Amino acid sequence: MAHKTFGIDFGTGTIKVYKRSEGIVLNERNVVATVGKSSEKRPVAIGDSAYEMFEKAPPSIHVSFPMHHGVIADLQDMIALWDFMVEKVSGRRRLKGADFYISVPADIGQVEKNAFSKIITEGQCSPRRVCLIDKPIADALGMKLDIEKARGIMIVNMGADTTELSVLSLGGIVVSKLLPYGGNYFDTQIMNYIRKEHNFVIGRKSAEQIKKRLVSAVPVDESTTAMGRNVVKGLPGEVLIQSGEIFPLVRDVFYEISGAIRSMLERTPPEIASQIQEDGIYLTGAGSWLKGLDQLIADQTRHKVNTSRQAQKTVITGLGYLAENPKMALRYSVPLTQTGK
User: Fold this and answer.
1) Given 15, 34, 187, 289, which is the most exposed site by the fewest CB atoms within 10 A?
2) Which domain holds residue 287?
3) 334 torsion bin: left (phi>0), alpha (psi -120 to 50), beta (else)
């Protein structure tokens, strides 16, 4: 009987799990709500239910995001989150003898990469094998790109906290760079601006809705209202926000990302760079849907930009492909732990 095999994308905003022969079986917020301090801390809600508590919980309940900028910020919270998720994906508390493929950013240190494996090995699972897969590899496979050819592929993945730039060829990563900008950065900028310029306090969820409506890499003419609290009056109310106010807050980041892409292309070997020029740049990740981002990158780099309708799922789709093809997976993964036979 075939071993149980799972692909896991521990994203900053969401956790996605692929189960062999079943497809994507989990897509939940990567959030933990706890009570107590230090050694007495215990979770009271995890995933989507914990996110519902965010900005609504009393001081006794701490709601946190245990991933920051592509790496694990709180390992114990991540272990608690995964143990909870195991019940959802397996129907029981313990999951024994399974293989796990976990995506990790390519441009982080080995210690940070190894921490991802500890989520599985130090939790209530008893894995047969835990392997790490560089996220750009999974991204490319999820977009059905042939990564084994001697042909350059450039991927730009804009996530919640980071934007990862990568160039692949012959099944390996030629060059990669992790930028500290993602969708959460825009949320923070919007919250700070509205408080400073409108004397109005809004929550992160409201800022996220404004981002989805108004944030654009090119100028647009739109507006939206947001609910919050008037600082001067101390009363709840709403404020009207114009896209023209938001664009200056985010413009420089978009140009910095496109500048980093140009710089990477300049450092890419000429033969590979010429193939990227021919095939274009692949834009993916949750932030790739922001208005005009593909257009700006195309204008700044003079390369065509390819987008995906399933941009938020390309990584987990690629991990799923490896889960269904374990012989191929072994070529792209590093086994970190192995128990049993």
Assistant:
1) 289
2) 145-307
3) beta
> Structurally, how many domains does the chain consist of?
2
Residues paired with 100 in a beta bridge: 6, 130
Residues 79 and 104 in one domain: yes
> Both 274 and 204 in a single domain?
yes
Same-domain status, 93 and 158: no
63, β-bridge pairs: 33
Q: Which residues lie closer than 8 Å to 66 by C-beta, 6 or more apart?
A: 30, 32, 72, 73, 74, 75, 77, 78, 81
The Cα–Cα gap between 125 and 200 comes to: 46
Which sign does the torsion angle of CA 266, 270, 276, 278 carry?
Answer: positive
174 plus 123 within the same structural domain? no
Amino acid identity, position 299: D
Please state the pTM of the whole predicted model: 0.92
Per-residue pLDDT of 129-182, as tens digits, reads 999 999 999 999 999 999 998 889 999 999 999 999 999 999 999 999 999 999
- 277 and 334 share one domain: no
Cα–Cα distance measured from residue 181 to residue 261, given in angstroms and rounded to the nearest whole number? 14
The CATH number for 23's domain is 3.30.420.40
Measured between alpha carbons, how far is 50 from 66 in angstroms, rounded to an integer? 12
CA separation for the pair 123, 80 (Å, rounded): 7
Closest-CA residue to 248 (of 200, 287, 196, 180): 196
Q: Please tell me whether residues 202 and 328 are part of one structural domain.
A: no
Question: At 42, phi and psi to the nearest 5?
Answer: -140, 145
| Residue 38 within any structural domain of the chain | no
Between 183-198 and 243-267, two packed helices, what is the crossing angle to 10 degrees?
150
d(CA 19, CA 204): 32
